[in-house]
Fold:
Amino acid sequence: MTDTNQPEPGTPLPDQAPARVVPNAEFKAALLLILLGVLVFGSVLYLMYARGAFDSTQKLVLMADDSDGVTVGMDVTFSGFAIGRVRRIELSPEGKARVVVDVTQKDAHWLRSSSIFTLERALVGGARLRAFTGIPEDPPLEEGAMRNLLVGDATAEIPRVLAAAKELVQNLTALTASNAALDLALRNVQTATGKLNGPGGALGMLVGDDKSARLLVERATALLTNVDRMTVKADSLIGNADRRVFGQQGVMTDAQATIVQLNALLLEARGSLKKMDAVLVEAQAVGANARVATNDLGALRADVDINLRKIEQLVNEINRTWPFARDTEIKLP
Structure:
């Protein structure tokens, strides 16, 4: 039985609007797909450019015993900045890891012939490839250079650290044992502390017996008493000596009187010396006059000698002239 109220197929319902037809829908969809592909391709190109895929690079080969921690695409840093990237990792004929690195030409000038390269493997985090240049004036690193890779593995020290920790724990266990030296030392300290707190105190600890400590204290007390008595006697002796030496009738008084008399004698001697000085001055004057007179006498004697020689020459001449004369005596006035 058919329902006469149902509409015919293809007849629009009275409450629905007719579908809108978009003009050139296929063309617009194709254009949108092309634009989306261009955007994706441009993004890929930009990412490749940002990653330096189009930069000119320089080849560098790093040799290591193993490549544990090194991955393709891993950065090589210099002072914290990426200057290269690991291109591939291969095995050399010698059985070593051969890490091929592409270094950008714009950053290759930081690498020199004396540069060193390290692989650092930390306990936490991945490994890092780092380059260091100590002498910037050295020749630049050549194309295709091969350098050894120094590996610093923190995990390699873990077994040694564990062994050292185990040895330390064993030593601590041996120190804290019941019959260990430390335990005996602590017991001795406890015993010494007990003796210090005892009646004998420090003396009891030194002599090892309270009776001996009391005897030692008694002897020390007696010794101090004797010292006090000797001190009193010494004070009395010093007082007597002070009175005998510095008292009114003491030695110092007599010494002062003697010094006064000695000063008087010295004054008299000083007066006598002044008189003697005057006499010596007069004697010096007399001696000077005598020296002058002696000089004059010497000159007079020289003149007399000259005259005598002349007279003798004259007498000799007369004798030669008057040979018959026999009386050659000449009388001087």
The chain has a mean pLDDT of 77. The first strand starts at residue 57 and ends at 64. DSSP finds six helices and seven strands in the chain. Helices lie at 25-50, 158-175, 181-197, 201-207, 210-246, 251-321.
